Amino acid sequence: MNRRQRKKNRMAEQVSQNAPAEQVKAIAMKVSAEAVLAMRAKSPTRKKPSSRNVFRPYEPMKGVLPTGDTGARIAMDAAFDANAASAMGLLENVNAAFGEGYAFPGFATLANWAQIPEFRKPAEVYAREMTRKWIKIQATGEKDKSDKIKQIEAEFKRLNVRAKMREAIEQDGFFGRSQIYIDLGTGSGPDARDELKTELVESPVKVGKGSIKRLTVIEPIWTYPNRFNANDPLDPTFYKPESWFVMGKEIHSSRLLTIVSREVPDILKPAYAFAGLSLTQMMKPYVDNWLRTRQSVSDLIHAFTVWTLATDMAQVIAGGGAENFYNRMEIFNLARDNHGVNAINKDTEEFSNVSAPLGGLDKLQAQSQEQQCAPSGLPLVYLTGITPAGLNASSQDEIEVFQDTIAANQEIYTPHVSKILNLVQLSLFGEIDPEIGFAWNQLKVITEEQKANIRKLNSETDRNDIEAGVLFPVERRTRISNEEDSPYPALDLDRELPEPVTESGRPGPNEFGLEEHENQPQMVPA
Asked: What is the per-residue pLDDT for 5?
């Protein structure tokens, strides 16, 4: 017996001499190892917290880099190395941020998260709404270019540009980056590999007629940046890769339409493999809260009542009775039924149950689900299909705000669509017509009733302008026949119309907007 144990025994003897009998009994009670082992056997296993390195550079999959390449490097080069960054205090700040959990999970982990509906649906809805109305190819100037526009529209349909853009935007939501490869049919030989390393200039020299074969969307897990400038922030190529490795092939960045909707700061770009912040990563804390709340509510409903058996636990804790105690509990559970009899000891046992209140669980679960709309910006009806409850409740205002946000974000993808349009013109005509462009169609859907009201208002406005001499009737006929979704697309503009007749039977406005009776002399009665 060591000195510390002898000291404890002396203190216990002193307390036992001066304390009441109840306290002496409590102090002398010991929990046996048998009871602990029995409790461990009955308790559910708990996972130990995992310790992982949250700050590490992204390592591409095997085969992405050429054979013999040493692999990924952190976001520092010769002029911006780890020592210089440490002296500036940047690495400490970055490590602190990553230590709080804001780490890039990697494309493989993001791919696994894409299988969860709560992560997948926001990206799908965002990409669908972004391309739902698509674009309208149009021309400016006085020349008629409808034939060229029809050919461009047919080529866009052949290349499936709309579906490819939707897929790329969806992958950008999953991974934070997506790329569209423009296949010009270069082949796979040594000459083709050298050609892929060169810049794709928008010129007939690089893009001949009929050269565009297809468009391919490439997931970011198969690509890795090759070279980028990290020396001069004033350089236009600062932190922009000059080329990419695609499964061992080096391809110039101009041949890949790289879509990154939510860019991260420059210091983090190499750690993210020059991807941005994915919508999936933004939603993760909210989705985790929702999944935990949903499961907790389900567990609480499944076991909202707890049966309690008050019994003598002194023998179990002291040792020797753990097995008998759990046998007693097993008999208790077997008899705990509405059709059985639960027999308890009258003197030493007491039977009762405790029920958890279930009121308000629906509101807690609904709030946790609604919070998922915050990072995605989606209205609840888009995310879940749930409409607001209550009299005259509507989601129209939220939908209009969301559509305005989508219309503003469409400008992120305008340069990519413009480049495809220019390359298609080179492939079709051998030149780029600067007067041919495109515009994003409006997202708001107008009902037939709203269209009828708009036509009625325009008709009244045109009538006032005709009567005031601002417009000719033939100008109104020309406009309404050329309007998109016009109810009068087959108007014969060369046909002469009779003079309109008013309700009073007198001639209506002539072609100059003046009523004929105003020009006639007034008859004075005799």
From this structure: 57
